[in-house]
Amino acid sequence: MPEPIRLPPQPDACELCGRASTxxxxxxxxxxxHDKPYVQKRFGKSERISATLWVCRxxxxxxxxxxxxxxxxxxxxxxxxxxxxxxxRAFVDWLAGKPAGFTPRH
Length: 106
Description:
It comes from Metapseudomonas resinovorans (Pseudomonas resinovorans). This is HNH domain-containing protein. The chain is mainly alpha-helical and 106 residues long. It has helices at residues 37-42, 45-50, 57-66, 69-74, 79-84, 86-96; strands at residues 23-27, 52-56. Helix 3 packs antiparallel against helix 6 (86-96).
């Protein structure tokens, strides 16, 4: 019997901005692309499912505002790659100084 796929446990704070806040699970490899051959060639099933980050809603919204699903799957599929984008890094650095309940107006 195959080993069950385990999702990372939920931390106490956003894995991008570090604020203690209500968190959502961001799939680093978008679920909508899991059945695409170019995704299946690069990532095994376990990796496609378990590659997630726990992020606050403002960080999650910003990720999807900046990147297409294909860009997320192929380029921005880990925390370091996301934070390597200067636009997202600037947003995260700005948001990190705000209180936990703060929601930016877009």
